[in-house]
Write a structure and sequence with these properties.
alpha/beta, 27 helices, 20 strands, binds (2S,3S)-3-hydroxy-2-methylbutanoyl-COA
């Protein structure tokens, strides 16, 4: 079969078959496909050739597929953004890409995209410029616009084409949330036109779509009407209200810039695209976007810590309290077979009930929920110990209790099994010293609520070797958590840096300052929640014991001390520094303050100071790990890039 003369390309492969169908395969260097400047420049050359072949009837259609098992396209190449965010190059680069996607759309022959795995950002924008989209309906398919998580929004025409395809309200929702949709949801919204059960069927279905000259339908009128006339302003304001509940404009300008663009042009998809460049470029160079890119690569870096090729199937958790029960539930949710041990069924049952709620909330489909329930087994006798790949102890914070538990099960362990404690404050060496093989015990420190917080501190004692720590990190990754390796030292990373910040605020309350004001100031700075509300959420008893463990004694007779003595422990007892109703702190008026963010900086300073100390002491290996660990463990302002990056930039 004679192949047409095609330009040399490194990122694309092309061949034409006997039916004159053109098979265009993207296969860029690296583990995932990304649209780098080189890939886009090569596509320009290819499209020019396609236009010629179409004109001379030597090409009946084009099918765009990925040559990688990992997925379709993960978007534009983020590693090029720092160099791209310069006003002198970016506007032209974006306009060139706009013109390229418009040429694909205007090709006179059908162009069909076959999607498997992730189809994100610029990858989805390229797919939306095609005339028809077929996707694999399996658990790996994820379709969406994650750009808002990078401090930007879609810049390759996705703002206009998604509105044309799914309607303004749904499209804006997808872009403002950054949510990655499963295949079924994407089909339901008309983002994709056809689903196939298996990747093997993708080529065949895409071929049929080309031969039948199928074209995707645009969003129906009733959906498009939501952006027409005065309704658009109303819808835009509703979106701003929603966005403000999640983020402050001064911290995360991107969603608000996108809503402004929508308010200006939301009823005209081509005007949206034309308006994209001027709204997009300032965001790309913003400190928020620069820092969020740093956070992206730092969190990517965490994925490299785990030992490759280690498989985990069975987990045994000892202690069915809040932490133990929720760790067991999370592991079962992530596909592990879990046995949960405690003294009797009465102590285990509440954890199983909470787990079922989590499964229903996260899994939705009945058969998936039932399967997860089956994976989580009550085990009051500990028969699961001998079969487990990972044993996690999460009982009361008492040294002698932990030593007794580990001493009792050491001989039952299967070779290579991970032995871990979820202690939040006791040095590992003291727990391990009585073991025959103290090097086997590591720390896997989860954060409450386990299902929400991505961080797991993998605690390294002086007995451990890289092998145990590598396996611990691999396990955290296997259950969808982000591991940060931390040396066994009082408070490890997160508690160590949080405590001076929380106690600093408590001391100000003791001196009569308004907890409402202090909390509002910390949030104005960029913390997800204020220090006083956080103390009440963690529990004043836990706060007091961690503070004491870290050498910050709580003054006898202080308000903090009296609250604990009176059993007013915060949210879990309905009263602490605040009164709590239905899990919500009942806050009074926030007194006016001339410089709320300035007060916020003051409050956060002890946290940043302690992060510097923790790095200097080698508790974590470097500043980047400290920053990503504190962001993931405390929610510290990701738009600032972490406490040390914020100090480096003079923000605190
Ligand atoms: N650019 C550059 N590198 C990327 C990348 C990207 N978009 N996506 C992934 N990588 C690298 C990653 O750093 C890692 O590298 C390797 O690929 C494997 O990834 C105009 C401007 C796709 C769900 O935000 O969410 O398009 O560490 O280990 O767990 O509108 O990566 O091996 O050296 O994460 O299977 C929008 C970001 C870009 C998606 C795969 N796209 N990526 O997860 O593999 S902005 C995103 C992800 C945009 C346009 C705008 C995930 C993934 P290394 P991995 P994974």
């Amino acid at each position: 079969m004679i192949q047409p003369q095609m330009p040399e390309t490194k990122n694309w492969r092309f061949h034409r078959d006997v039916e004159q169908l053109g098979w265009l395969t993207i296969d860029t260097p690296g583990p995932v496909n990304t649209l780098s400047r080189e890939a886009i420049a090569e596509l320009e050359l290819l499209v020019e050739r396609f236009e010629q072949l179409a004109r001379s009837n030597e090409l009946a259609g084009i099918i765009l597929l990925s040559g990688k098992d990992s997925g379709f396209i993960a978007g534009a190449d983020i590693s090029e953004f720092d160099a791209m965010s310069d006003f002198s190059v970016l506007p032209d680069a974006l306009r060139r890409t706009h013109a390229l996607l418009a040429r694909i759309e205007q090709l006179t022959i059908p162009v069909v995209a076959g999607i498997h795995g992730f189809c994100l950002g610029g990858g989805l924008e390229l797919a939306l410029a095609c005339h028809y989209r077929v996707a694999v309906n399996d658990d790996k398919t994820r379709i969406g616009f994650p750009e808002v998580g990078l401090g930007i929004f879609p810049g390759f025409g996705g703002t206009g084409r998604s509105i044309r395809q799914v309607g303004p309200v749904d499209a804006m929702q997808i872009m403002l949330t950054g949510k990655m949709l499963r295949a079924g949801a994407a089909r339901g919204l008309n983002l994709v036109d056809k689903l196939v059960r298996h990747r093997d069927m993708l080529r065949w279905e895409a071929r049929k779509a080309v031969l039948q000259k199928r074209r995707s339908s645009e969003a129906p009128f009733h959906k498009r009407a939501m952006a027409m006339g005065p309704l658009r302003g109303y819808v835009a304001n509703k979106m701003r209200e929603q966005a403000r509940k999640k983020a402050r404009q001064e911290h995360y300008p991107a969603p608000f810039a996108l809503i402004d663009l929508f308010e200006r042009h939301g009823d005209d998809w081509q005007a949206m695209i034309a308006g994209e460049v001027d709204a997009f470029v300032p965001l790309m160079g913003s400190s928020a976007a620069t820092n969020l890119r740093r956070v992206f690569f730092a969190s990517e870096g965490l994925k490299k810590q785990g030992t490759k090729g280690v498989r985990f199937a069975r987990v045994h958790v000892i202690g069915a309290g809040v932490m133990g029960g929720d760790i067991a539930a999370w592991c079962a949710l992530r596909g592990m077979s879990v046995t949960l041990q405690d003294l009797d069924m009465e102590r285990i049952k509440p954890a199983l009930d909470r787990a079922k709620k989590l499964f229903r909330k996260r899994l939705k489909k009945k058969h998936e929920v039932d399967a997860a329930v089956m994976r989580l087994e009550a085990d009051a006798t500990g028969k699961g110990v001998g079969r487990a790949d990972v044993i996690i102890e999460a009982v009361v914070e008492k040294l002698e209790v932990k030593q007794a538990i580990f001493g009792g099960l050491e001989d039952q362990l299967k070779p290579g099994a991970i032995l871990a404690t979820n202690t939040s404050s006791i040095e590992l060496e003291r727990i391990a010293e009585k073991l025959k093989q103290p090097e086997r015990l590591i720390g896997l420190h989860f954060f409450n609520p386990v299902a929400q917080l991505p961080l797991v501190e993998v605690i390294r004692s002086s007995f451990n070797t890289d092998a145990e720590i590598g396996k611990g990190a691999a396990f955290a990754l296997a259950i969808g958590k982000s591991p940060v390796v931390v040396k066994s030292a009082p408070g490890f990373l997160v508690n160590r840096v949080l405590m001076p910040y929380m106690l600093g605020a408590v001391e100000r309350v003791e001196r009569g300052e308004s907890p409402e004001l202090l909390d509002a100031a910390a949030v104005a700075f960029g913390m997800p929640m204020g220090p006083i509300e956080l103390m009440d959420t963690v529990g004043l008893d836990v706060g007091k014991s961690v503070a004491t463990e870290l050498g910050h004694a709580v003054p006898e007779g202080s308000r903090f001390d009296r609250l604990v003595k009176d059993g007013k422990l915060g949210r879990k007892t309905g009263e602490g520094f605040y009164k709590w109703v239905d899990g919500k702190a009942q806050k009074g008026e926030t007194p006016a303050h001339a410089d709320l963010a300035g007060l916020g900086r003051e409050l956060v300073k002890p946290l940043v100071d302690m992060t510097e100390v923790v790095v200097a002491e080698g508790v974590v290996a470097n500043e980047q790990l400290a920053d990503i660990g504190v962001i993931m463990g405390t929610g510290f302002a990701p738009f600032l890039g972490g406490p040390l990056k914020a100090r480096q930039d003079g923000r605190v």
